[in-house]
UniProtKB/TrEMBL annotation:
It is found in: Nucleus envelope. Keywords: mRNA transport, Nucleus, Protein transport, Translocation, Transport. Residues 773-873 are annotated as: Disordered. Its main location: nucleus. This is Nucleoporin Nup133/Nup155-like C-terminal domain-containing protein. Residues 111-694 form the Nucleoporin Nup133/Nup155-like C-terminal domain. The keyword Ribosomal protein does not apply. GO terms for biological process: poly(A)+ mRNA export from nucleus; protein import into nucleus; transcription-dependent tethering of RNA polymerase II gene DNA at nuclear periphery. One of its GO terms (cellular component) is nuclear pore outer ring. InterPro entries: Nucleoporin_Nup133/Nup155_C (IPR007187), Nup133-like (IPR037624). The keyword Ribosomal protein does not apply. One of its GO terms (molecular function) is structural constituent of nuclear pore. Residues 806-823, 860-873 have a biased composition (Acidic residues).
């Protein structure tokens, strides 16, 4: 070997060798076999980092574009040329990483992108050769799609290159000089196919072949580029685990990295339309002679959908890493557009017969929306086909149905509730929801039960499933109760649901048990049913006057005019509240507890001719009764407030002024008659007779205990009404307080309350004694009848006669009990009175010589009578 040594001191230009030159020598000559020179060493005092990185990037770009003198720009073999250049880029990164300081992330990725383009170019060359061979075999040889893309690139994008007439030579020059523009080539591939379809002048088969070539171009370039990225990540100092399938998954990893060439904005706008267009072409061009090519395009369509997902994912990560509101908004839009595009593309895949590929992609991206729609639609289609098929056709469809059912089961095991929620949400909204529901009960009952229980809105389906599939009657009862109390507006529907809940609870009892009385749920259901039936009593009370009205608004107007006069006059906010409540009553809308109490305690009560519908004596008792059956489910503060409110209205509704006549002007019996006609007397009488005050929450409260009920915002806060409503209700309740305070201070309300309770208890005892006497007299009469009929009483005669007597007595007793229930009750004249007149049991205004008082109760005639009412002037 001969070496020529030149004195560089005489030539300043030779005194220093540039970093770029040193690296080039190492890359192109250091790799030669049997090389005696070690070109990998470098000076410790090397050039600056920017100089190093600029030199490396320049060498990499020159290799990619064949602008270095070390590579021929007119190679004989394109394949060999591409391989040598790829080898040079591999040597470049290996040499720089082993001989120089670490490169920045930006430079590293730029070098990797150049290598990706070159690797993609190698794959594209193979595709190009295949397309050229196929084109020559056609009846009329033609240029390939890639030829046309290169021509467009030469004319539009790459004007610096001298125009070459030969299309084949243009194609070769592209692989040698223009691989940096691969992304442009891809976009032109879509444009050419799109323009030809828009023109509509070429045969469908010709368009189909071009669409197939476009698919090949996109798939070969992008798939190889991403594959190369993963396989060579470690060579470039990157972590392959951070980029599954070639896509970085962490936003932070994109910081300080330029835009990725594999997910540019223009490419993203081209691949989606190309995917859709290719699918449409394969579907419309399907014929016997094009069947294979259509199948190829359909299969490749799934690969394009996958690449589209990759591009949206990569572009989204990169955009978010930029930071700032503009980029974040763009990233959000990208995500939404990506999901929308994927949903449409998966649906298109199904339309061209690629259901397995579409399901695989939806499963991969956990796209439950698309997965459930495809799987349920397939189940619907197969079910309908099976029903319409016969014989051999059924044998073909049945395995597919079983396969689809097994596939759904696998998704349940893999995704759990995430899939269950989606599949049931969609499946039970379709036309064959009944079949789907039945199939779900049979195969996926556990997941169906979880889905049904997850949302109260599904309770109606849940209880049906409990009864039909699971035989879980106790849970069904709970669901029905929840539906009735929380979801049903219709009173009739509420009663039906409650009745079904009670029936389900009975069905849940073990065979040895025959009663639900001791169960809390049973007590609760009885209370809800009682509340609903009480509302029906309110409507029955209004019905005689409103039955002739033409519509519910007219019914409400009549009801307010007849039964809300006092409240309208003295308490405007409570009247507005009562108006809304009575509107629900006449429309048969279920009332809340507070609304039902208002309907019972704020309406004017009249003594109607029909005792079954009259609320004249029982309204306040019924209010206490519904409170008593509901109090276990109420907050203690709420229950206490409602109890005090009811008793407060009882006392304010009583005509205390009429009871304060001078003793010498009124006999005791007349005073007692007045007491017996007060709401307080009726409430105490009925409550005591029915054990209301000894079995439960309710009790008799004195007037002093109920003063100021409902006059604080704290008491009313749970109702969650507006501030104006709250202030109005407090004002109305304070008005009642003034009336009650006047009754306590002026009219001996407390003393009369004690006397009224004593009288009620005494009358009740007399009533019970009279009932006992009636029962004893009835028993005596039955015994005398027995003797008169048979000549002996029970126990006489032989065993056969005794048995016959027992059976007859039981029958007679049942008959008498049934008849007794139909006869009107006989009332002792001592404690019953007939009230004349038609005045309401509410307040009227009575004026005397001293002052005008508002009173609640019947009008009282006579000089000196002083009354107290619910209102004030």
């Amino acid at each position: 070997m001969r070496l020529t040594i030149v004195d560089s001191s005489e030539d300043p230009g030779l005194s220093q060798i540039s970093t770029k030159s040193k690296i080039e020598q190492a890359v192109f000559f250091g790799v030669l076999p049997d090389n005696a020179l070690d070109l990998s060493r470098y000076e410790k005092k090397t050039r600056t980092q920017p100089e190093l990185e600029n030199a490396v990037l320049a060498i990499s770009h020159e290799i990619l574009t064949s602008q270095t003198s070390m590579n021929s720009s007119s190679p004989v073999s394109i394949e060999d040329n591409l391989a040598r250049r790829a080898k040079a880029l591999n040597t470049l990164i290996s040499h720089v990483r082993s001989s120089y300081p670490p490169l920045s992330r930006e430079t590293t990725w730029r070098l990797l992108w150049d290598a990706e383009r070159l690797a993609a170019g190698q794959a594209l060359w193979q595709v190009s050769e295949k397309h050229r061979a196929n084109a020559k075999l056609e009846e009329k040889p033609r240029a390939t799609l890639l030829h046309e893309c290169v021509r467009m690139l030469q004319e539009v994008e790459y004007t610096a290159v001298k125009q070459i007439p030969s299309s084949d030579e243009q194609l070769r020059q592209m692989f040698v000089l223009q691989l940096a523009y691969l992304d442009k080539i891809l976009c032109h591939a879509y444009s050419v196919v799109h323009d030809l379809v828009e023109e509509g002048e070429r045969p469908a088969a010709f368009i189909l072949r071009l669409a197939s070539e476009a698919d090949d171009i996109w798939i070969s370039v992008l798939e190889i580029a991403l594959k190369f990225r993963v396989e060579n990540a470690e060579l470039y100092g990157l972590q392959p685990d951070s980029m599954p399938e070639g896509i970085l998954t962490d936003d932070a990893a994109y910081i300080k990295i330029p835009e990725f060439w594999t997910s540019g904005q223009t490419m993203l706008k081209s691949i989606g339309p190309l995917t859709k267009l290719a699918g449409q072409i394969s579907e419309s061009a399907y014929e016997a002679e094009t069947e294979d090519l259509c199948s190829k395009v359909a299969i490749e369509n799934a690969q394009l959908v996958q690449l589209t997902c990759h591009m949206y994912e990569e572009r989204g990560h990169w955009t978010r890493s930029r930071g700032g509101s503009r980029y974040l908004a763009e990233a959000k839009a990208l995500r939404e557009n990506g999901i929308k595009a994927r949903t449409e593309q998966l649906r298109d895949l199904v339309n061209i017969g690629q259901l397995p590929a579409a399901l695989q992609l939806a499963e991969k991206y956990r796209d439950m929306h698309s997965l459930t729609r495809m799987i349920v639609d397939e189940a619907t289609y197969l079910s309908q086909s099976y029903g319409e098929s016969a014989g051999i056709s059924k044998e073909v469809v049945k395995p597919r149905m079983d396969e689809n059912t097994a596939r759904i089961g696998r998704y349940f095991r893999k995704f759990g509730d995430e899939f269950g929620n989606a599949v049931f949400d969609y499946g039970l909204m379709q036309g064959n929801a009944g079949d789907f529901f039945k199939n779900a009960q049979e195969h996926w009952g556990k997941y169906l039960k979880t889905w049904l229980c997850a949302d109260p809105a599904r309770a109606k389906l849940c209880w049906i499933n409990d009864v039909m599939a699971d035989k879980d009657y106790a849970h069904a009862s709970g669901m029905l109760k929840m539906i009735a109390t929380e979801q049903e507006d219709s009173l009739w529907s509420k009663e039906v649901q409650l009745s079904l809940a009670k029936l389900s609870l009975l069905a849940a009892l073990p065979p040895s048990s025959s009663s639900t009385d001791k169960q809390p749920m049973a007590t609760l259901l009885e209370g809800e049913l009682l509340t609903a039936s009480t509302q029906r009593r309110v409507y029955a009370y209004l019905l005689p006057e409103i039955h002739a009205a033409i519509d519910p608004p007219a019914e409400l107007e009549i009801a307010l005019e007849l039964y809300a006069r006092t409240t309208r006059k003295y308490h405007p906010t409570l009247f507005a509240q009562l108006e809304n409540t009575l509107g629900k009553v006449v429309s048969h809308i279920a009332l809340s507890l507070e609304e039902l109490i208002d309907a019972l305690t704020l309406t004017d009560q009249y003594d109607t001719r029909d005792p079954d519908s009259s609320l004249h004596e029982s309204s306040f008792y019924l209010a206490l009764q519904v409170l008593n059956v509901n109090w276990p489910q109420l907050d203690p503060g709420r229950a206490e407030y409602l109890l005090r409110l009811i008793w407060k209205r009882v006392y304010v509704s009583t005509n205390w002024g009429a009871l304060n006549r001078k003793n010498e002007s009124r006999p005791e019996d007349e005073t007692h008659d007045l007491l017996r006609n007060t709401p307080l007397y009726h409430t105490v009488m009925l409550g005591t007779d029915n054990l209301l005050f000894t079995q439960g929450f309710t009790q008799i409260l004195d007037p002093a205990d109920v003063h100021d009920a409902g006059t604080t915002a704290t008491e009313l806060a749970y109702l969650q009404h507006g501030a104006d409503w709250l202030a109005g209700v407090i004002k109305d309740n304070e008005s009642m307080d003034r009336t009650l305070l006047s009754a306590i201070e002026k009219y001996k309300c407390a003393e009369w309350t004690v006397e009224c309770k004593r009288l009620a208890l005494a009358d009740l005892e007399i009533h019970r004694e009279a009932e006992a006497a009636d029962r004893e007299a009835e028993a005596t009469a039955e015994a005398e009848l027995e003797v008169a009929t048979n000549g002996h009483g029970p126990g006489n005669g032989d065993a056969r006669e005794w048995t016959a007597d027992e059976e007859r007595d039981e029958y007679v007793l049942e008959e008498s009990e049934g008849e007794e229930g139909e006869e009107p009750m006989q009332v002792n004249d001592r404690w019953a009175r007939v009230r004349e007149g038609d005045s309401p049991n509410w307040a009227v205004k009575i004026e005397d010589d001293e002052e005008a008082e508002q009173v609640a109760g019947s009008e009282v005639e006579g000089e000196g009578a002083e009354d107290v009412s619910m209102g004030e002037d």
